[in-house]
Amino acid sequence: MINSLQTEKLHQDESLSIEVDRKLNLLFTRWLRHPSSEEFRRSLTLASDYICDLECRYWLSDARKLYYMELADQNWLVSTMIPKINPYVARFARVMTEEGLSMLDMQRIKDKIEDEQKIVEANTRVEIFLDAESATEWLLQHHDSNSRV
Fold this sequence. Notes:
By secondary structure, the chain is α/β, with parallel strands linked by helices. The protein is 47% helix and 21% strand. The protein has five helices and six strands. The protein has helices at 37-54, 71-85, 98-102, 106-120, 132-148; strands spanning 8-12, 16-21, 26-31, 58-62, 91-95, 125-129. The protein has a six-stranded mixed β-sheet with strand order 1-2-3-4-5-6, with helices on both faces. Strand 4, helix 2 and strand 5 form a beta-alpha-beta unit. The radius of gyration is 14 Å and the shape is globular. The relative contact order is 0.16.
């Protein structure tokens, strides 16, 4: 399913690759190595700029090389990045390893995102997957149902 994406590369550095499928309105980010906190924030700020500029409705993030996230970065993600992308992103799918998932308090992050969304009346759905195929299928399934409306 992920192979069905028709992406063009927008950016790549030593930490992150950013691609877009303009037809599906989907941003695809893939961590190439575990970043420092500064690289993490800089890279996600760039990705969110693309989200806003291109008005992407879907974000697929392959975070299998992101082994953990500092608590300060988790809080920054919720307080800074979520409000920025909320007006655009309907669904965010994150692909992680089982080890990465065990080291991240994803439920706390999801709860904070939901609390933030109640304040700004947004409705970004966030789901975690262990493989890119399932994540892509979830995103495209939503895209297909929106296309028929």
